[in-house]
């Protein structure tokens, strides 16, 4: 089979060497003669795996010791509910930056439990280009309990390259589902960072939550046990049976990232990959990006063909060339290339070569 590059937005974009290692270990993990899926999560071997994965993630993101690292169920959306259920009371209010689809879904879920204020939004300039709000400090009500934002909007391809702060000093909560581990961050800027695993961490189902310890211990009485940060911490993320195979794969991804030189090395690669694609789009009359330069995602690159009538031919020929899943989300239309950590630069180069050739043959 000729080389295939998968530009799918998710679920689960895993680096090829990680999948190869998982395949090799599938039937016999650590010489136990069984798959990792079949061993007890309470047994020594799995507990070692869990400890090492936490240790590696702490190293990768330089997580301070006053933050808990929790491996949870329910993906990103589970955390949309977990945050208000763990750190607010009924009748409380929190502030939200609305930059697109995933911000809105987080707001909708939070509205079940608290009052929500949208305090900043993405905007289109005179050229029709989309920006994320650039305020470093976002004005919020004095009694707002937290400021929530989505550093990378997976569908619109909008990314923050800074962490906004709340004017009242309330904790900042970030949905990093589609950007975590793509670049260094200063964890201390955040109260809670959470991510559905399925872009840069591992398979879907798992969520990682990094929670400052002064925010643990305030869950509402009604909070489901599996969303409760304190219980999750007390049970070492094993209050009930954890998604062990996803956790195992996440651990392999963390090892792979450390071998690559960590998130600083990934940031260089990711910036270079995104640059190759945006540079080509920008100099072309045939393709265009609707995202302003200050807000372009390194992970999800939506782009349009100047002539929408060519979309079907573009997608069909791209598939034939081994370039998969480039169709844009229906809300945005056009194309979207998701180029998470697992996408090698050769994949982006192959895409740009294909785009050039398509442009040449259609022009
Ligand atoms: N947040 C963002 C930014 C996402 O991209 C996604 C899914 O793609 C989610 C949240 C929802 O994650 P899940 O499907 O794991 O609930």
Class per helix and strand makeup: alpha/beta
What best-fitting shape do the alpha-carbon axes yield? globular
Q: How is the largest sheet built, in terms of strand order?
A: 2-14-13-12-8-3-4
The overall number of domains is 2
Mean pLDDT: 97
- The percent range for helix content is 25-40%
Listing every helix as H and every strand as E from the N terminus to the C terminus, the arrangement reads EHHEHEHEEEEEEEEEEEHHHEEHEEH
Percentage of residues in strands: 15-25%
Number of helices: 9
Instruction: Write down the Rg.
Output: 21 Å
What is the CATH superfamily of the largest domain?
A: Type I PLP-dependent aspartate aminotransferase-like (Major domain)
Give the strand tally.
Answer: 18
Query: What small molecules does the structure contain?
Result: pyridoxal-5'-phosphate
Classify the oligomer: single chain
What is the C-level CATH assignment of the largest domain? Alpha Beta
For the sheet with most strands, the description reads: 7 strands, mixed
Instruction: Give me the CATH architecture of the largest domain, please.
Output: 3-Layer(aba) Sandwich
Ranges where pLDDT stays below 50 over 5 or more residues in a row are none
Distance between the termini: 31 Å
The CATH topology assignment of the largest domain is Aspartate Aminotransferase, domain 2
């Amino acid at each position: 089979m000729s080389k295939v590059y998968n530009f799918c937005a998710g679920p689960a974009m895993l680096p090829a060497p990680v999948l190869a290692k998982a395949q090799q270990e599938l039937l016999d993990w650590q010489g136990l003669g069984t798959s990792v899926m079949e061993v007890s999560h309470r047994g020594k071997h799995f507990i070692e795996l869990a400890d090492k994965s936490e240790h590696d993630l702490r190293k990768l993101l330089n997580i301070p010791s006053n933050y808990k690292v929790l491996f949870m169920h329910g993906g990103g959306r589970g955390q949309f509910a977990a945050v208000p259920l763990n750190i607010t009371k009924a009748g409380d209010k929190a502030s939200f930056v609305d930059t697109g689809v995933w911000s809105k879904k987080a707001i909708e879920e939070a509205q079940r439990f608290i009052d929500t204020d949208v305090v900043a939004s993405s905007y289109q300039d005179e050229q029709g280009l989309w920006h994320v709000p650039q305020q470093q400090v976002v004005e919020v009500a004095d009694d707002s309990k937290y400021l929530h934002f989505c550093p990378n909007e997976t569908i619109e391809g909008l990314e923050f390259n800074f962490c906004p702060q709340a004017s009242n000093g309330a904790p900042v909560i970030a949905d990093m589902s589609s950007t975590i581990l793509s670049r260094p961050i200063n964890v201390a800027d955040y109260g809670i960072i959470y991510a559905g695993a399925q872009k840069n961490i591992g398979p879907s189902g798992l969520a990682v939550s990094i929670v400052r310890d002064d925010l643990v211990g305030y869950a509402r009485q009604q909070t489901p046990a599996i969303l409760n940060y304190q219980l999750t911490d007390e049970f070492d993320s094993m209050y009930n049976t954890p998604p062990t195979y996803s956790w195992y794969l996440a651990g392999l991804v963390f090892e792979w990232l450390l071998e690559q030189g960590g998130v600083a090395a990934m940031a260089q690669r990711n910036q270079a990959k995104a640059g190759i694609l945006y540079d080509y789009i920008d100099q072309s009359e045939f393709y265009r990006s609707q995202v302003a330069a200050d807000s372009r995602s390194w992970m999800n690159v939506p782009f349009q063909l100047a002539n929408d009538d060519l979309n079907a031919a573009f997608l069909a020929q791209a598939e034939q060339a081994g370039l998969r899943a480039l169709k844009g989300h229906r809300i945005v239309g056009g194309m979207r290339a998701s180029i998470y950590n697992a996408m090698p630069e050769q994949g982006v180069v192959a895409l740009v070569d294909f785009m050039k050739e398509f442009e040449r043959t259609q022009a």
